[in-house]
Design a protein that fits this description.
Structural class: alpha/beta
Number of helices: 9
Bound molecules: pyridoxal-5'-phosphate
Radius of gyration: 17 Å
CATH topology: TIM Barrel
Largest sheet: 8 strands, parallel
CATH class: Alpha Beta
Strand order of the largest sheet: 7-6-5-4-3-2-1-8
Distance between the termini: 21 Å
Oligomer: single chain
CATH superfamily: Alanine racemase
Number of domains: 1
Shape: globular
Order of helices and strands: HEHEHEHEHEHEHEHEH
Length: 221
């Protein structure tokens, strides 16, 4: 199956309020161009250097979403153009994004990544760490970042009930955090769901799904 067919299939399953992030990490520019030709404009990458190389060459109206673990010393390389950073997992990182955004005279949209999976290896705040950071309130002074929602990754399992439970938990955190700290229309994104679980994510309230292999095929690392 080709990229266009795959994209059509995935898009057909998305309600109108859910946006598709085509996760193009480890795939060449040609694959992105193919998806672009079908109208896809949002692409997700997880490595700074790779995203920079692609952004340099590919059309300027692509919205680049950063979805991988982001080191503070690399923020400066993506700050001039990144559309949304899904993976903010510390106050330190948020401060650095603010600092670099200010230098570029931009406001950078961000999501807070929450750890919901059973695996220890995945990044993100716990719910308690996240609310603690928000309660401290320092983030309120950062004028060049805009916190627009939460992101999470479910456990890597075939157990659909487990995945649903984790997404549902994140959705409940999202409601609590929205009510307690934001209560505005800017905080509105829930980035959940990948190739094997985006259908469940949609049922559990996703507004952004991050789909890679289902569109581009398996990655060769
Ligand atoms: C790679 C990646 C995806 C896409 O994974 P697929 O299983 O290929 O759809 C989604 N989200 C994050 C954070 C990723 O790193």
């Amino acid at each position: 199956m080709d990229i266009e067919t795959n994209l059509k299939k995935v898009r057909a399953e998305l309600p109108s309020n859910v946006r598709l992030v085509a996760v193009s990490k480890f795939h060449p520019n040609e694959a992105i161009e193919e998806a672009y030709a079908t109208g896809q404009r949002i692409f997700g990458e997880s490595k700074v250097q790779e995203m920079n190389q692609k952004q340099n060459i590919l059309p300027k109206d692509i919205e680049w979403h950063f979805i991988g673990h982001l080191q503070t010393n690399k923020v400066k390389y993506i700050a001039p153009y990144v559309s949304l950073i899904h993976s903010v997992d510390s106050m330190k990182l948020l401060s650095e994004i603010n600092k670099q955004a200010l230098k570029c005279d931009r406001v950078i949209p961000c999501l807070l990544q929450i750890h919901i999976a059973q695996e220890e290896t995945k990044f993100g705040f716990s719910f308690d760490e996240c609310t603690e950071m928000l309660e401290k309130g320092e983030w309120n002074a950062l004028k060049n970042i805009s916190i627009q929602g939460l992101m999470g990754m479910a456990s890597n399992t075939d157990n659909k009930q487990q995945i649903r439970k984790e997404f549902r938990l994140l959705h409940s955190y999202y409601q609590v955090i929205k009510n307690n700290f934001f209560n505005n229309n800017i905080f509105r994104e829930l980035s959940i769901g990948m190739s094997h679980d985006y259908s469940i994510a949609i049922e559990e309230g996703a507004t952004l799904v991050r789909v890679g292999s289902k569109i581009f095929g398996e990655r060769t690392y």
